Every structure is written in C-alpha cells, then in structure tokens.
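Hi! If you just cloned this repository, the fastest way to understand the data is to look at a raw example. We've pasted two of them here, unedited. The first protein comes first, obviously.
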Amino acid sequence: MTKNEQGFSTIEFLIGAVLMTFIIFFPIVTQMQMHAIQSLEQELNRTLQMAAVQGSVTPDIKQITEQNLADIGVENVSFTPETTSDPVERGGTVHVGIIAERPQESMFSGVMGLIGGDDIESDTFVVEGSIMSEYLP
C-alpha cells in the first residue's frame, strides 16, 4: 500500500497557525488583566490602612491614592459613594471603594470575541473593602 506524502494544505496550515497563536497569546493577555486588577487591590489595601488610622478617607488620602495609581498607569480614579468620608471612632467600620478605568485597551475582549466568549461588560474596575477604624478623637 502506498502512502500519500503531500504535506500540509494551506487550510490546515492556517488553522494550525491561528490555533498556535491563540495558545501562545491568550495566557499573556489574561495575565495582563489580572495584573491590573491585582495592582488596584494592592492600592485599595494601602488606602484602607491609611483610612483606618485617620478614621475616614480624607482628601489627602484620596490624593495619595490617585497619585499612586497614576504612577502605575491607572487614570480617571474615583471613589464610590459608599466610601466613608466622615470620621469614625475606633471600633467602627471604614469602607473604601475605588473605581478606575482600565489602563489599556481590553485585548481580553478581542480574544474572547474570537472564540465566541462573553465580552467584558465594563471598561472600569471596581474594588471595595472595609476595615475597622483605629481613630481616636
């Protein structure tokens, strides 16, 4: 019996190339999105620690947080309406919520669109947290 040794067709090559490109780049794109979220959560934790000492999120704390996020490329930062702005005595709860725009275009949405997945619904990240106040008036 003879063996057919024609090699790859153009269609097979294109399918393989697209598949390999996806396998190589999807983890990188996903990691970029996770890094942006992780950086925002780290800044939330710093803000919570500062707010616990002050008893609330003061304008100085907001400015420091916005500057720290701008240094890593996150612009248009705002705070949720639930963010504690009035001093809370020791033992109370201080709540902080940060809203920030994605630092770059969402390549994750593009890749998910290629494979038929759901697109990202929002171009903003929202992280929230609470901490016990340590403020003594």
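Ok, and the second one:
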Amino acid sequence: MTESELTGTALEVAQKRETRGFNHTLGIHFTKVEPGLVEAEMPITPALLQPFGFLHGGATIALLESVASAGGEYACDLETEQPFGVEADIRHKKSGREGDVVRGVARLSDRRPSSKAGYKLYWDVAAYDGAGDVLSDGVFVVKVVPKDYLAQKLAERGQAPV
C-alpha cells in the first residue's frame, strides 16, 4: 500500500483489502473510506486485459464490488454484524486500456430492511478512466446479517461458525 491519508477504521478497512487476497492481486489501492463513500484505484496492467487488449470487464466489476464491500464493512458493526455482497447490476460503457488507472467509486444510496434478518445497503457504483469517462456503472447490494442469526442458521445446517 502506498502512503495514504486514511486513518483509524478507514485505514484498517483499506489495509485489510490491499495487503492480501484478490484486491492485492489486482493492485487495488483505497484512496477514500468514509461513511457513505468509498473510492479506490486499480492500475490496468497486462494481467487485467482480455485477449483483444482491453480491460477485462470482470476486473472492473471486481473493483466495483471491492469499493461497495469496503463501504458495507465500514457501515456495519463487525462485533455483531457480518456484511456479504449479494447482488451486482453493472453496465459496461467503455473499455479501459493498458497503462491507465481505473478509479472505482461507491456511494451509499439506500438502506432497507432485509426480509429475514439484518438490512441491505444499496451502493451506486461507477468506474472512471484517467480522463474521467465512465467505463462501467450500476448498483451493488451488500446484505448485513446479525452474527447471532448467522450462527443460528449455520447450526441448523450442522456447520461450524466461521
């Protein structure tokens, strides 16, 4: 992770994602984590290109899921709640090219009760190229489930808690 102005919980959310796993593999760097708004950048490297030399749409969707998921984590109480990405509705509008940097932005647009337990966070997401043009946009939904409800469901299925 490069030098960041993030502090406290925002820095913890970013570091958890940047230093390991899929986000680390994609080179995602979080630049803003605050209530209702998360931003991150992802360099377009040869590893992220589809066979015709353009940014793979799946990499863009991964960036958008990452910013929405980070927002979901930041918005919930991790002592008592667990966030899960549950839905993505993304439209691709323009292709990215190698050497550019994609900026992913997630803005919280709605919070609704879930039908069984917890609540859903609706994030308006967009990916921008270096010129500020929209590459992809849409909505990503994060469901936040109480951990006691999750433990109950796992026990009913004979599974150990995570």
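That's it. A detail worth noticing about the second one: Residues 30 and 40 are 4 Å apart (CA to CA).
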